[in-house]
Amino acid sequence: MTGPGHERPLTTRILNVTVIVAALGYFVDIYDLILFGIVREPSLRALGYSGQDLVDKGLFLLNMQMAGMLVGGILWGILGDMKGRISVLYGSIFLYSIANILNGMVVNIDQYAVLRLLAGIGLAGELGAGITLVNETMTKEHRGYGTMVVVTFGALGAVVGALVADNFQWQTSYYVGGGLGLALLLLRVGTYESGMFHKAKKQSEGLRFLTLFADGKRLYKYFLCILIGVPIWFVVGILVILSPELSDIIGVRGEVEARWAILWCYVGLSVGDFASGMISQIIKSRKKVVLYYILGCTGVILLYLYSRDISLYYFYTLCFALGFGAGYWALFVTMASEQFGTNIRSTVTTTVPNFVRGSVIPVTLSYQFFDGRLSAVPAATIVGMVCMAIAFLALLPLQDTYGKDLDYMELD
User: Fold this and answer.
1) What's the predicted TM-score (pTM) here?
2) What is the pLDDT of residues 173-224, one digit of tens each?
3) Three-state secondary structure string covering the chain
4) How far apart are the first and last CA of the chain?
């Protein structure tokens, strides 16, 4: 019972309807986002590809999906600040749900590419709008817990994706993803818009995305927020999705399957995000925890790439460790959201993680460039260490935003 002198339990304050629905939304987002990596081999084999084409065509389709997320990140971010956080969710969820259902019906690579692009555009709207709503509807002391719950639970969508793909045809996996998205659309009806947005809407109108470019320091801070997240998608996009090919070089005793590598990586990401979020709340710092994770992830990447003649069990343990080391996604997105005012917060929170996902394009192209001149492990090492160094240097100038008051606007 609550009343004067009584305060609701912490779990009740954290597990409100906005957090629960945002967590379910991110769960479906991750299921659909990572599903292509899980079904890459069987779906491409069904279209008649084999050998090196499984890598080359797979990276092409992954890049099409991430290009869609770049476009969608800007689109949904702008609409989120102009029309509201809730309104963009309906269109984005509907788009990626339909695109994923149609993905199960493709008969050639061109259809596959177009639908991965459309799915990417749709998927780009879910996380940013959800995190923005959580940050703006919870107290500054507890919003870190809220984003921690969203990302920790959401990461398990990849686990469910791997289990579905293990028990059904790859087409069915896409149908399930689309069905989950449409079910989520019905759940979203119960969420509400943040008061901060309504206040900002009365005070400011227009294309707020341009506000990011109106000030050099603001733009610099925006790019720093993007760069600290790049290692996360290097881990997923190269080391884990291409694990069947890399494992042959490492010398794993047994056949590595991408879906199990992804499953264990995302279990690690879920645990890592929970741990990083909890530690951040305990020590009252976001920046320090992200720094620890970047350094730890660097060590795990090198261990993964330079282990030799290992068991299948040990390899999947390394995939879990990679996920745990990269498990600062919740903190990274929260930090980005907290760096900017209410009038552009949705734009930032939606575009930043999608630009990070879009960084897979230059990362994979760089990997293919070095792989063609050296070999897979040196190529992954060079690209990976550059990603880690960039993230480390980008983090240093950023403000630690733990406990920051978010009820303010950016001035043009």
Assistant:
1) 0.79
2) 999 999 998 888 877 665 554 444 444 454 444 445 566 667 788 889 999 9
3) CCECCECCCHHHHHCCHHHHHHHHHHHHHHHHHHHHHHHHHHHHHHCCCCCCHHHHHHHHHHHHHHHHHHHHHHHHHHHHHHHCHHHHHHHHHHHHHHHHHHHCCCCCHHHHHHHHHHHHHHHCCHHHHHHHHHHHHCCCCCHHHHHHHHHHHHCHHHHHHHHHHHHCCHHHHHHHHHHHHHHHHHHHHHCCCCHHHHHHHHHCCCCHHHHHHCCHHHHHHHHHHHHCCHHHHHHHHHHHCCHHHHHHHHCEECCCCHHHHHHHHHHHHHHHHHHHHHHHHHHCCCHHHHHHHHHHHHHHHHHHHHCCCEEHHHHHHHHHHHHHHCCCHHHHHHHHHHCCCHHHHHHHHHHHHHHHHHCHHHHHHHHHHHHHHCCHHHHHHHHHHHHHHHHHHHHCCCCCCCCCCCCCCCCC
4) 46
Tokens 């240093």 appear where?
Answer: 396
Give the separation between CA 319 and CA 334, rounded to whole angstroms: 25
Say whether domain 11-192+208-395 belongs to CATH 1.20.1250.20: yes
Q: Which residue has the tokens 């390899």?
A: 315
As given in the structure block, the two tokens for residue 252 are 């794993």
The ranges assigned to domains in the chain are 11-192+208-395
- When computed from its CA atoms, the radius of gyration of the chain, rounded to whole angstroms, is 20
